[in-house]
Amino acid sequence: MATIKDVARLAGVGLGTASRVVSGKGSVAPATAKRVRRAIEQLNFRPSHAARSLLSGSTQMIGVYIPILKGTFYTPILQTIDAELRAGGRHMVVAFGHGSADERRQAIEGVQFLINRDCDGLIVMSNALLEKDIVALGREQPNIVVLNRVFESMRDQCFCADHLHGGAVAAQALLQHQHREFAVIAGPASSQDNVARIAGFMNELRRQGIDPQTVRTIDSDFSPEGGWASAKALLASKHRFTAVFCANDEMAVGALSYFQETGLTVPQRVSVLGYDDTQSAEYSAPRLTSVHIPLREVTVSGLNCLLNRCYDSLLPVQREFPINVTWRASITMPHQQRSATAHPRT
Amino acid sequence: MATIKDVARLAGVGLGTASRVVSGKGSVAPATAKRVRRAIEQLNFRPSHAARSLLSGSTQMIGVYIPILKGTFYTPILQTIDAELRAGGRHMVVAFGHGSADERRQAIEGVQFLINRDCDGLIVMSNALLEKDIVALGREQPNIVVLNRVFESMRDQCFCADHLHGGAVAAQALLQHQHREFAVIAGPASSQDNVARIAGFMNELRRQGIDPQTVRTIDSDFSPEGGWASAKALLASKHRFTAVFCANDEMAVGALSYFQETGLTVPQRVSVLGYDDTQSAEYSAPRLTSVHIPLREVTVSGLNCLLNRCYDSLLPVQREFPINVTWRASITMPHQQRSATAHPRT
DNA sequence: CTGAACATTGGGAACGTTTCCATAGTTCTA
DNA sequence: TAGAACTATGGAAACGTTCCCAATGTTCAG
Fold this sequence. Notes:
- Two copies of one chain form a homodimer.
- Chain A is an alpha/beta fold.
- Chain A is built from 13 helices and eleven strands.
- The first copy, chain A, has three domains: about 5-55, lambda repressor-like DNA-binding domains (434 Repressor (Amino-terminal Domain)); about 60-160 and about 295-325, Response regulator (Rossmann fold, 3-Layer(aba) Sandwich), CATH 3.40.50.2300; about 165-290 and about 330-340, Response regulator (Rossmann fold), CATH 3.40.50.
- In chain A, strand 9, helix 12 and strand 10 (about 290) form a beta-alpha-beta unit.
- At the A-B interface, helix 4, helix 5, strand 2, helix 10 and helix 11 of A face helix 4, helix 5, strand 2, helix 10 and helix 11 of B.
């Protein structure tokens, strides 16, 4: 690989001049610049990032930690980060957890890995991390932004939609359609955003005169498998409900699948509401009505906040994110359906 | 950030000695090593990758280009690459295309970007790239491996399941269930692996005495939207069929969604077969029977081949990949169903 | 006791940039 | 026309490693 010295030699100029042409800083006589550019072309010279990083102390590299790359939730986030970053000539390096056990250790290791790789900044998503973990990590690399979760000790570096409100929106959607008997398929209790949306849902129910005690909640794990199994458990429990609120779309899809298997048609016999409005909601059978979280805006704001920290730029950052529901086909009025337990074919 | 000089000074040793302890090469007296390690601990020293790269000429970084991160096809690939790489202390940097128009230019730019970032090697997936593009790119960085597609000029760097055979497997699955009237929802004609699986499907049909002319094929785009629209077009065309072969799961899911909307129950009235056996097949409604491609093995083999090139390791590489079908609920015998066009409720 | 073999150590050179300073040449001002 | 103010240029220093060579100390065979 040609170096800038080769370029300088070929162009018959000094090292400094060649460098000035490459980086575009400082003044160079037009004729000289042209000669240098020709040499660059001829040698197919491209500056070494390693050398630049060494000198500048900046790698132009942002690390992203994602607990698991499965399902449709995280992919748009990565896509967004990559696009934004690459537009600015920087790049993204990713570390994934591999799911299953010991997520906390995985998260710590993953983030550590990214820090060791000299990332200028980090974007972290994890429910398994504890407050003290993030604090410890932050000591090594203060440029951290957290998505979809808030740590009290660093609120201004956390970007998260108001899931308490999101839960309320979900409840309203169902109440609006005259539903009064509910079931809930919740995410894991360890997930902060899950508990917020469930709490929001229950609060709104209470506010509208429905006793949260009457709703049967099953805790699951955000996966379609979990949704499927929860739907099964729900039906087995003989609890009466005309609508199910699922804490994310993946579980809703799993539930849809189970209902279909048992001949309980949606929405004719049960209404189903999803959450997140991810791609899996769009073409499920039936298409899933879901609470829409503007994840793109959340991501961009978080990223911008990070870039502002790392490179003192002044990118716009937004802290409030509107939540609404995307209406599709999985919800109808209950007088058009009979209670789920009434005639399950199972 | 502490440097190795600080470590040496604090430990009261020379630069070389400190370096020997850090890298674990060369001999150091146990007592000295201990002092150095303590200094490392105390200063929280971590070696600079930039400096190492500069000296060694290797970044320990593998670039991955993916045309678009949407749906469930590419995510397990990324997950696999990340896990394998990270286990070896290396890391992955990703560049995505943003879909839509001009995929070829996007792919070239994306790969160029990765090359400029000094990746030691590249994994590329793209149907839009031309033979000459990959050749040109290969001149700049010869360590390239291509997944799920084969370029004639670099067969040994391409890892791809035998989709011609995959298509045949698909046909057999349907024929086995007594189907004789078919429709096909195909991927884009520009996609090499798509045309292979369709050709394989048709060949097998012919071999078993069915005229491929009698099957109605609709070209689509691998997306659920496309599958949905194609299913609609299929029904509108009044073509008779008892089974649909979809060239990937995403389109199959879209088709399932459309069939559900129009009351055409699957598999009672139409059988649907997917391809790739991705996660979207697992919890669709009904669960989708799909041709299983061992994508993990393909990915690992490709990656290993690349690592062998980059770091002359001797990781195992596999070139033949078994294809079979994962049976779920979307296929049944046609005498249990009536031809799709017979009574569409539409 | 002597010299050879070996273990341990210190420090300079090099990797490929950018930045800064010094120098030379050129234009402008009074 | 003298000097000031620029512009254009070359090259040394520095970034943080690793590798190599030289130097020192230690052990051991004869």
